[in-house]
Design a protein that fits this description.
The chain is α/β, with parallel strands linked by helices. The chain is built from 17 helices and twelve strands.
């Protein structure tokens, strides 16, 4: 069937047959489907949606568009697990969770993505590490997982290539917030990676693609159900994104935060809670812990005892990065030439944060993409972001802006002043970051 006829059918609200979806995905892989057609298809799905059968067909077709990994022949001696987040601001969890799970006896081939819209991407963070090969071939991926226990990488040319192409188009065509496209994109990569179990971090709040909690819950259920239908045991946590997860946003800045976490120099409590909660679900799924208390204790030992840090260091070195990143992060990670404070619109207490606006401020600084082909500046971003309830005013800024130029820094300061609602008194204490378990 011609690509334009498939687009027309979905535009007009008709459910697509599996064969139509398979043909369209094959065109994405071969290049027979043009950029405009791919964008039109994404927009048609965004507005018209897909039923469960269409989502399953799209997921299967994208998973089969390239190679799939069979880990059984590697005889690793442990379960193959992974985690995926639907995207947020200041979300560095993957950088700590993958090595922590490896230190607990799991093997983690973590297939991650680049930033979408206002959210930061794990691969963009890793690209700020000099020499790090974020897209190794499958042979090297196998070798690193075997040796370090984890490898946080992007899609290789062999894994789900149709998804890789559609993923980049969604980022620049305002079609990210589509449950069918999100589900198929995430699960196609995970199925191709040959996992035994998956845990999902589904964000909700002002900095999430699913800002409404009911929408996040629906996405979590769709992911769990579609994964189960594909034979991939999956659990999901719905977590809060009404504030940045870490007190920073920006690629090299977030890697520094992860290094501080792993080495024990600094561990943000909310970041730690989400990391351990997701890790505990993974260990329970594959029988590496009998109950939640044991799972959390194992993760705490791995993190606090340094085993997770050692796994991270081994992974970075095996993928071409520096061997002393944990000891000397400042020697390797880019730093912006200008750092200025962002003042609030007035003195008071942080009442609420438009987290999406915070993420977009990072994009405007050069820390994200407006177009798929844009380069990212790893050095820029925001540090020391004030949380809800914090007193701000003279001597207590909203954040510290890391920028290339004074104009860029001033623009970011104006954006932050608009993103932060200042109150005369601290707001009521918000619930913890983990809201629901699906």
């Amino acid at each position: 069937m011609l690509p334009q006829e498939t687009i027309r059918a979905k535009r007009d609200g008709r459910a697509l047959a599996p064969g139509e979806i398979e043909d369209f995905v094959a065109g994405l892989t071969s290049g027979a489907v043009g950029e405009g057609q791919a964008a039109a298809f994404a927009m048609a799905v965004f507005f018209r949606g897909m039923d469960a059968g269409e989502i399953a067909a799209l997921t299967r077709a994208m998973a089969r568009s390239g190679e799939t990994i069979d880990w059984k022949r590697e005889r690793l001696g442990g379960p193959i697990v992974d985690k995926h987040s639907t995207g947020g601001v200041g979300d560095t969890v993957s950088l700590m969770l993958a090595p922590a799970l490896a230190a607990c006896g799991a093997f983690v081939p973590m297939i991650s993505g680049r930033g979408l819209g206002h959210t930061g991407g794990t691969l963009d963070k890793l690209d700020s590490i000099p020499g790090y090969v974020a897209r190794p071939d499958l042979a090297r991926l196998r070798e690193v997982v075997r040796g370090a226990g984890c490898a946080i990488v992007g899609q290789t040319d062999d894994l789900a290539p149709a998804d890789r192409r559609l993923y980049a188009i969604r980022d620049v065509t305002a079609t990210v917030e589509s449950i069918p496209l999100i589900v198929a994109s995430i699960l196609s990569k995970k199925i191709a990676a040959g996992l035994d179990a998956l845990v999902m971090d589904v964000k909700t709040g002002s900095g999430a693609f699913m800002a409404k909690r009911e929408d996040a819950r629906a996405l979590a259920r769709a992911l769990v159900e579609a994964a189960a239908g594909a034979g991939l045991p999956t659990r999901a946590l719905v977590t809060d994104m009404d504030r940045p997860l870490a007190p920073c946003a920006g690629n090299a800045i977030e890697v520094r935060e992860a290094v501080a976490y792993l080495t024990g120099a600094r561990r943000d409590p909310r970041l730690h809670e989400v990391t351990v909660a997701l890790g505990a679900e993974s260990l329970l799924q594959v029988g590496l812990a009998r109950d939640a208390d044991e799972a959390r204790a194992k993760l705490a030992r791995a993190i606090e005892g340094g085993a997770a840090a050692a796994r991270f260091a081994r992974m970075v070195a095996a993928l071409g990065g520096p061997t002393d990143l944990l000891e000397r992060p400042e020697a390797h990670l880019a730093a912006a030439p200008l750092v200025i404070d962002a003042p609030p619109a007035r003195a008071g207490f942080v009442g609420a944060i438009d987290v999406r606006a915070v993420g977009l401020a990072v994009v405007e600084l050069g820390g994200g993409r407006r177009r798929a082909q844009d380069a990212i500046d790893p050095a820029v971003g925001l540090a020391d972001l004030a949380p809800p309830g914090a007193r701000v005013g003279p001597g207590a800024p909203l954040a510290r802006i890391h920028a290339r130029t004074k104009d860029a820094a001033d623009a970011a300061a104006r954006a932050l002043a608009l993103a932060y609602a200042i109150a005369d008194a601290p707001p009521a204490q918000a619930p913890g970051p983990v809201l629901e378990r699906i």
